[in-house]
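Notes from hallway chat w/ T.B., transcribed later so I don't forget. T.B. wanted the structure written out for a chain they're using in a teaching module, and asked if we could keep both sequence and structure tokens in one place. Agreed to drop them here.
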Amino acid sequence: MKAENSFIFIPGVGEKTEKNYWKNGYTHWDHLKDSGKLSDKKKQHVEKAERNLEVGNSVFFKDKFPNKSLWRIYENFSSKACFFDIETTGLDQRKNKVTTVSFYRDGESKTLVRGQDLTRERLEEEFFESKMLVSFNGKRFDAPFLEHNFDLNIETPHIDLMYPAKRIGLQGGLKKIEKDLSIQRELEDIDGREAIRLWKKYEKNGDEEALQKLIEYNQYDAKNLQDVTEIIVERLEREVYRPHIK
């Protein structure tokens, strides 16, 4: 399912109306534009969406879909998606610091480390290069933490997988959902508390082995997000879209 199959971004069109469109064979923006069912004003919204999609302006769609439905544009921008995860010294963004930030894009992992290359400029570069961000609980934790600690304003559309996961009955944290989806990972013995301990060992004693283990753990979190995303998007398409098309 792609953005072109969705109509809920049009003012006045909710999920019930959208399903009726699908059932009647209107499964693409072109179909609905030519159907005579849209007012001129609503047709203008579709045409504006078409222009922005054509030039790859993902930011246009950021506020057009609610969190639970932003997954619908994933296929449009998946080639430029960035999966990211952060590690911190605690849960309070006012008192604690970001220690590492890992990005997974185009099959490659990259980690920025506090005191080395974790700067506002580098973060802005990573986010600017991306058409879409994907995280788990990132809208409530990762993004606000980064924005507060580095005075950032993240404008890139951001799929927080926690919301679409709940929609298909997947509960719990990322590692539990990975197990539920049979996605394998190494370093299963490390969790958030252990990540803090590893950072303290590095910060206090210069323990490079502890830092490398922390980086590896952080990178697994970011990398596995892609597999989780692909499965969730496919399941949502089967549940939300396919039952209503002929």
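Follow-up for T.B.: The chain has two domains: 3-55, 79-233. Might be a good example for the class.
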